[in-house]
Amino acid sequence: MSKRKRIYVLDTNVLMHDPTALFRFEEHDVYLPMMVLEELDAAKKGTSEVSRNVRQVSRFLSELVESHGDSELDGGIPLKRPDGMDLGRHKPRGLLRFQTREPGNGHDFGYVVPDNQILRAVLQLREENRRTEVVLVSKDINLRIKAKIHGIPAEDYENDRALDDLSLLYTGTGVLKPDFWDRHPELESWSERGRTYYRVKPRRDERWHPNQFLHFGEGDHVSLRVLKIEGSKATLQIVDDYQSNPHRVWGIAARNLEQNFALNVLMDPEVDFVTLLGTAGTGKTLLALAAGLAQTMDQQRYKEIIVTRATVPVGEDIGFLPGTEEEKMTPWMGALTDNLEVLASPQDSSNWARQATHDLLSSRVKVRSMSFMRGRTFMSRYVIIDEAQNLTPKQMKTLLTRAGPGTKMVCLGNVEQIDTPYLTETTSGLTFAVERFQHWPHSAHITLRRGERSRLADFASEAL
Q1: Are 284 and 150 part of one and the same domain?
Q2: Is residue 264 part of a domain?
């Protein structure tokens, strides 16, 4: 942000997206046009996430106005952080200002009435404050373009971005240099319960995270996993090999390094939260489901598998059509059904055997809607959240806080396929979770890069 004080005019969609946006502009002033208040009032009814956010904004505004007393509002209201709210490094020191005069009609912005009123209010504010820079903040790309056409500075709301560029996103893996063993003469090694461990002191260019996987390249079979980092030393473990037939997971063998890494953390009870990123055909759903079935049916580690996904629009009512919650979610769960068919194919290929196996698996795999997740607690469950890239950070928090003792949460998604309005690759709840959890010792993240669906699917993803 500029060192000079600014006035930020907030569009309605910014407050709908993040109710705390009022308090995130530090020493700068925040200005709300009357049309924004009108649009907030119109959107306050309902049970959607947007309606809840709007009602929270209204409560914030009410508290600020009441704390100001009977004084005139023309001069603005000091923005005070609400009690108990964690804003991180942001400390609001500016003023909240409202539009108190009708704007002039000297500019024609087209026929979209709400946008017209907001742009006119910005122009009037700029004329009244010629020495202060006035900036419009909106999630609406077209409104920002329209503002810039008329010479109004406009920006996207970027406070909720998890990182500046998607290329900086943590991948969960790292390539070791060929001279790794020579660079660590202090290395200690030992074996315990059939596994080999190493203790090394990472160099300056070796910045590792818990449950990060380290390898020498696709051709080398030695891969290491960072088990823990204590002080200046890291404990590494040679990863289990799920690429060979004897170590299949529910009949599924890893076809590449990243899939092998994913199965290592999916099968580890010490890892409570796993995120898998990857394009179509990389095996996200199949690996997560196979690991869940192996630990639910064979090892009895979890009571059942719960599968949910971000339906678009997310969190809306799933309707009053006949049928149970599971039946209403069936159209959204094509990926689950396809993968269950692969996993439910026994050696005996008779129709009766296939149907019996499919019925058994279906009894332990429950499909649930996100609409009814609030307030629930999952005890000893294996929870798969599909299409997690369509979740906002707040929705991601709501889901992850449902986990009770003994529960494992697995988030799957592709941030290049976001369908939710106003969400981008850098503001998605999945990106947010990957960034925030990378230092936690009970979480792991793997980016799956190679498609394994078919040669046709692989070529199509590259050529089209």
Answers
A1: no
A2: yes
* In a domain? residue 229: no
Q: Residue 257's domain is classified under what CATH number?
A: 3.40.50.300
CB 33 within 8 A of CB 102: no
What would the two tokens of residue 243 be?
């690429």
What is the bridge-based pairing of β-strands 304-309 and 365-367?
parallel
386, 329 in Cβ contact below 8 A? Answer: no
Order of strands across the sheet that contains 273-278:
365-367, 304-309, 381-386, 408-413, 273-278, 443-448
Please indicate, yes or no, whether residues 114 and 257 belong to a single structural domain of this protein: no
Give the structural domain span for 117: 6-155
Per-residue pLDDT of the chain in tens (464 residues, 90 and over written 9): 446 889 999 999 999 988 989 998 988 999 999 999 999 999 999 877 889 899 999 999 999 998 887 777 888 899 887 776 666 666 788 899 998 877 765 555 555 688 888 999 999 999 999 999 999 999 988 999 999 998 999 999 988 777 777 888 999 999 998 889 999 999 999 999 889 999 999 998 899 999 999 999 877 778 999 999 998 899 999 999 998 878 889 889 999 999 999 999 999 999 999 999 998 889 999 999 999 999 999 999 999 999 888 765 444 555 555 666 666 666 655 667 777 777 766 555 567 666 766 677 777 888 887 777 777 899 999 999 999 999 988 889 989 999 999 999 999 999 988 887 778 898 899 999 999 999 999 999 999 988 888 888 878 877 87
The count of domains in the chain is 2
Residues 140 and 261 in one domain: no
Instruction: Say if CB 343 and CB 250 are below 8 A apart.
Output: yes
Instruction: Indicate if 419 and 280 belong to the same structural domain.
Output: yes
CB contact set of 340 (below 8 Å; sequence gap of 6+): 289, 358, 361, 362, 365
- Domain CATH code at residue 27: 3.40.50.1010
Q: Which residue, 155, 188, 211, sits at the end of a domain?
A: 155
Q: Do 385 and 409 contact (CB within 8 A), yes or no?
A: yes
Q: Are the CB atoms for 121 and 35 separated by under 8 Å?
A: yes
